[in-house]
Design a protein that fits this description.
Blueprint lengths: L2 H21 L3 H19 L5 H21 L3 H20 L5 H24 L4 H14 L1
Helix pairs in contact: 1-2, 1-3, 2-3, 3-4, 3-5, 4-5, 5-6
Length: 142
């Protein structure tokens, strides 16, 4: 079994353990698992054969943490996770030519923008205009 497949299995195990802790309301343990999954996801990102899957793994890792922070009523921390993954994908797409990885990142950015928009509609409605202007600027820049 290749090293990358082993890393993906470890990522899956961390996510599963985090989900189990989350569902059992063991939120501090869940944070540790989700943080570990996030680190593993970035380790896989550049080397995984399927770019769409690599982008999805990164997004899932951040969104799991955001969901956990929302459960803990830590809205700012949840928003920070959503912003971090969006900004990270923006940085990655800036380094890509038009390729399958570029297309996967573009799709991922649509997903992270939608998550940010929904989050702001529910928790920060005063920031929706700023978010939409930022997204339009990102589209023009890319």
């Amino acid at each position: 079994m290749s090293n990358q497949i082993l890393k993906m299995k470890r990522w899956q195990q961390q996510v599963q353990a985090g989900n189990e802790c989350f569902n059992a309301h063991q939120l501090f343990a869940a944070v540790a698992h989700y943080q570990s999954a996030k680190q593993l996801a970035w380790g896989l990102f550049r080397h995984w054969e399927d770019p769409a899957e690599a982008v999805a793994v990164v997004i899932i890792s951040y969104h799991n943490l955001a969901d956990l922070y929302l459960r803990r009523m830590q809205t700012d921390m949840a928003g920070n996770e959503l912003n971090r993954v969006h900004d990270s994908l923006l940085q990655e797409i800036a380094n890509e030519a038009d390729s399958s990885r570029y297309q996967a990142l573009l799709s991922g950015l649509r997903r992270t923008y939608q998550a940010l928009l929904e989050f702001n509609q529910q928790h920060r409605p005063e920031q929706i205009g700023e978010l939409q202007a930022r997204y339009e600027a990102e589209l023009l820049a890319g």
